[in-house]
Protein backbone atom coordinates (compact mmCIF):
# COMPACT_ATOMS: atom_id res chain seq x y z
CA UNK A 1 0.00 0.00 0.00
CA UNK A 2 1.20 3.49 -0.80
CA UNK A 3 0.01 7.01 -0.11
CA UNK A 4 2.04 8.35 -2.99
CA UNK A 5 -0.03 8.99 -6.11
CA UNK A 6 3.18 9.08 -8.12
CA UNK A 7 3.19 5.28 -7.75
CA UNK A 8 0.35 5.20 -10.32
CA UNK A 9 1.28 5.17 -14.01
CA UNK A 10 -0.41 8.41 -15.09
CA UNK A 11 -2.33 9.04 -17.22
CA UNK A 12 -4.79 6.23 -16.65
CA UNK A 13 -7.09 5.47 -19.57
CA UNK A 14 -10.60 4.05 -19.65
CA UNK A 15 -12.68 3.22 -22.72
CA UNK A 16 -13.47 6.91 -23.35
CA UNK A 17 -11.52 8.96 -20.83
CA UNK A 18 -8.05 9.84 -19.65
CA UNK A 19 -7.39 10.58 -15.97
CA UNK A 20 -4.22 12.37 -14.94
CA UNK A 21 -2.76 14.36 -12.10
CA UNK A 22 -3.69 18.02 -12.05
CA UNK A 23 -1.19 20.78 -12.72
CA UNK A 24 -1.38 24.51 -12.10
CA UNK A 25 -2.23 24.93 -15.79
CA UNK A 26 -5.61 23.21 -15.16
CA UNK A 27 -6.97 26.07 -13.05
CA UNK A 28 -8.64 27.88 -15.97
CA UNK A 29 -10.27 24.75 -17.40
CA UNK A 30 -11.65 23.56 -14.05
CA UNK A 31 -12.85 27.04 -13.07
CA UNK A 32 -14.87 27.16 -16.29
CA UNK A 33 -17.24 24.40 -15.10
CA UNK A 34 -16.91 24.77 -11.31
CA UNK A 35 -18.34 28.30 -11.50
CA UNK A 36 -21.45 27.23 -13.45
CA UNK A 37 -24.62 27.88 -11.43
CA UNK A 38 -25.90 24.59 -10.11
CA UNK A 39 -22.46 22.98 -10.16
CA UNK A 40 -21.04 25.38 -7.60
CA UNK A 41 -24.10 24.93 -5.37
CA UNK A 42 -22.75 21.69 -3.89
CA UNK A 43 -19.01 22.41 -3.84
CA UNK A 44 -17.20 22.90 -0.54
CA UNK A 45 -15.70 26.20 -1.66
CA UNK A 46 -17.35 28.89 -3.77
CA UNK A 47 -15.32 29.45 -6.92
CA UNK A 48 -15.30 33.26 -6.82
CA UNK A 49 -13.27 35.02 -9.49
CA UNK A 50 -10.64 33.24 -11.58
CA UNK A 51 -7.66 34.81 -9.78
CA UNK A 52 -8.77 33.72 -6.30
CA UNK A 53 -9.84 30.31 -7.58
CA UNK A 54 -6.47 29.76 -9.29
CA UNK A 55 -4.64 30.75 -6.10
CA UNK A 56 -6.52 28.08 -4.13
CA UNK A 57 -6.23 25.52 -6.92
CA UNK A 58 -2.43 25.59 -6.92
CA UNK A 59 -2.18 25.11 -3.15
CA UNK A 60 0.19 22.11 -2.90
CA UNK A 61 -2.18 20.12 -0.64
CA UNK A 62 -5.10 20.58 -3.03
CA UNK A 63 -3.06 19.96 -6.16
CA UNK A 64 -1.65 16.75 -4.65
CA UNK A 65 -5.12 15.20 -4.38
CA UNK A 66 -6.70 16.54 -7.59
CA UNK A 67 -7.03 14.50 -10.77
CA UNK A 68 -8.25 15.72 -14.15
CA UNK A 69 -10.77 13.93 -16.38
CA UNK A 70 -10.23 14.45 -20.11
CA UNK A 71 -12.17 13.29 -23.12
CA UNK A 72 -10.42 13.64 -26.46
CA UNK A 73 -7.95 16.07 -24.87
CA UNK A 74 -10.66 18.33 -23.38
CA UNK A 75 -10.92 18.77 -19.59
CA UNK A 76 -14.47 17.71 -18.69
CA UNK A 77 -14.19 17.23 -14.94
CA UNK A 78 -12.02 16.66 -11.94
CA UNK A 79 -11.69 14.14 -9.15
CA UNK A 80 -10.46 14.31 -5.58
CA UNK A 81 -8.48 11.41 -4.15
CA UNK A 82 -7.53 12.22 -0.55
CA UNK A 83 -5.74 9.34 1.15
CA UNK A 84 -6.00 9.39 4.90
CA UNK A 85 -6.24 7.46 8.11
CA UNK A 86 -9.42 5.89 9.46
CA UNK A 87 -10.12 6.02 13.18
CA UNK A 88 -8.19 3.42 15.14
CA UNK A 89 -7.11 2.67 18.65
CA UNK A 90 -3.76 4.11 19.65
CA UNK A 91 -1.91 0.79 19.76
CA UNK A 92 -2.68 0.01 16.12
CA UNK A 93 -2.68 3.50 14.60
CA UNK A 94 0.39 2.69 12.48
CA UNK A 95 -1.42 -0.30 10.90
CA UNK A 96 -4.39 1.90 9.92
CA UNK A 97 -2.34 4.77 8.49
CA UNK A 98 -3.08 5.54 4.86
CA UNK A 99 -5.56 2.72 4.30
CA UNK A 100 -8.60 4.82 3.37
CA UNK A 101 -9.41 7.50 0.83
CA UNK A 102 -12.12 10.09 0.50
CA UNK A 103 -13.30 10.62 -3.06
CA UNK A 104 -15.01 13.54 -4.75
CA UNK A 105 -15.96 14.51 -8.29
CA UNK A 106 -17.19 17.36 -10.44
CA UNK A 107 -18.24 17.03 -14.06
CA UNK A 108 -18.84 19.82 -16.55
CA UNK A 109 -22.64 19.93 -17.04
CA UNK A 110 -22.19 19.95 -20.84
CA UNK A 111 -20.88 16.39 -20.49
CA UNK A 112 -23.48 15.09 -18.02
CA UNK A 113 -25.77 12.22 -18.94
CA UNK A 114 -23.22 10.21 -20.93
CA UNK A 115 -21.87 8.04 -18.11
CA UNK A 116 -18.52 9.84 -17.92
CA UNK A 117 -18.71 10.43 -14.15
CA UNK A 118 -19.61 6.78 -13.59
CA UNK A 119 -16.73 5.66 -15.81
CA UNK A 120 -14.22 7.98 -14.13
CA UNK A 121 -15.20 7.13 -10.55
CA UNK A 122 -15.26 3.40 -11.34
CA UNK A 123 -11.67 3.76 -12.55
CA UNK A 124 -10.86 5.73 -9.41
CA UNK A 125 -12.02 2.72 -7.36
CA UNK A 126 -9.68 0.51 -9.39
CA UNK A 127 -6.80 2.90 -8.76
CA UNK A 128 -7.55 2.96 -5.03
CA UNK A 129 -7.92 -0.78 -4.59
CA UNK A 130 -5.45 -2.18 -7.13
CA UNK A 131 -2.75 0.43 -7.69
CA UNK A 132 -2.70 1.95 -4.19
CA UNK A 133 -3.77 -1.08 -2.17
CA UNK A 134 -6.30 0.82 -0.05
CA UNK A 135 -8.86 -1.10 1.98
CA UNK A 136 -11.76 1.39 1.99
CA UNK A 137 -13.05 4.44 0.14
CA UNK A 138 -15.62 6.92 1.36
CA UNK A 139 -17.58 9.78 -0.19
CA UNK A 140 -19.76 12.43 1.43
CA UNK A 141 -22.46 14.68 0.04
CA UNK A 142 -25.42 16.81 1.00
CA UNK A 143 -28.55 14.64 1.02
CA UNK A 144 -30.14 17.02 -1.50
CA UNK A 145 -27.32 16.38 -3.99
CA UNK A 146 -29.24 13.57 -5.66
CA UNK A 147 -26.91 13.19 -8.65
CA UNK A 148 -23.95 12.58 -6.36
CA UNK A 149 -25.51 9.95 -4.11
CA UNK A 150 -27.13 8.19 -7.06
CA UNK A 151 -23.68 7.86 -8.63
CA UNK A 152 -22.36 6.37 -5.38
CA UNK A 153 -25.17 3.83 -5.28
CA UNK A 154 -24.83 3.00 -9.00
CA UNK A 155 -21.20 2.10 -8.33
CA UNK A 156 -22.06 -0.15 -5.39
CA UNK A 157 -21.22 2.15 -2.51
CA UNK A 158 -23.18 1.57 0.67
CA UNK A 159 -24.91 4.41 2.50
CA UNK A 160 -23.54 4.19 6.01
CA UNK A 161 -24.59 7.51 7.39
CA UNK A 162 -27.50 9.91 7.25
CA UNK A 163 -26.82 12.93 9.38
CA UNK A 164 -29.62 15.33 10.24
CA UNK A 165 -28.98 19.03 9.63
CA UNK A 166 -25.31 18.67 10.52
CA UNK A 167 -23.88 20.45 7.48
CA UNK A 168 -24.02 24.22 7.15
CA UNK A 169 -24.52 25.25 3.53
CA UNK A 170 -23.37 28.67 2.34
CA UNK A 171 -27.08 29.50 1.86
CA UNK A 172 -27.28 29.67 5.65
CA UNK A 173 -29.35 26.49 5.91
CA UNK A 174 -28.35 23.43 7.93
CA UNK A 175 -28.73 20.46 5.59
CA UNK A 176 -28.74 16.69 5.97
CA UNK A 177 -25.72 14.77 4.80
CA UNK A 178 -24.98 11.28 3.51
CA UNK A 179 -21.84 9.21 3.94
CA UNK A 180 -21.08 6.28 1.64
CA UNK A 181 -18.34 3.67 1.65
CA UNK A 182 -16.97 0.72 -0.29
CA UNK A 183 -14.48 -1.88 0.91
CA UNK A 184 -11.84 -3.42 -1.31
CA UNK A 185 -13.34 -6.90 -0.91
CA UNK A 186 -16.79 -5.61 -1.90
CA UNK A 187 -15.31 -3.99 -4.99
CA UNK A 188 -13.43 -7.19 -5.92
CA UNK A 189 -16.60 -9.27 -5.52
CA UNK A 190 -18.41 -6.94 -7.97
CA UNK A 191 -15.50 -6.71 -10.43
Automatic annotation (TrEMBL):
UniProt cross-references to SUPFAM superfamilies, sorted A to Z: Acyl-CoA N-acyltransferases (Nat)
Sequence ranges assigned to domain N-acetyltransferase in this UniProt record: 17-185
Xref: PROSITE patterns: GNAT (PS51186)
Pfam families per UniProt: Acetyltransf_3
Listed InterPro entries: Acyl_CoA_acyltransferase (IPR016181), GNAT_dom (IPR000182), N-acetyltransferase (IPR051531)
Protein name: GNAT family protein
Species annotation: Nocardioides caricicola
Amino acid sequence: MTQDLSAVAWPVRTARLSIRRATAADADATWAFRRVPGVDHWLSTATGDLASYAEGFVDPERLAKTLIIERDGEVIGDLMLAIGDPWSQHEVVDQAAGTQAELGWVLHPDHAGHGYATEAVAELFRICFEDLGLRRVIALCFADNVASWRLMERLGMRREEHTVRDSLHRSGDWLDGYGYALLAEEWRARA
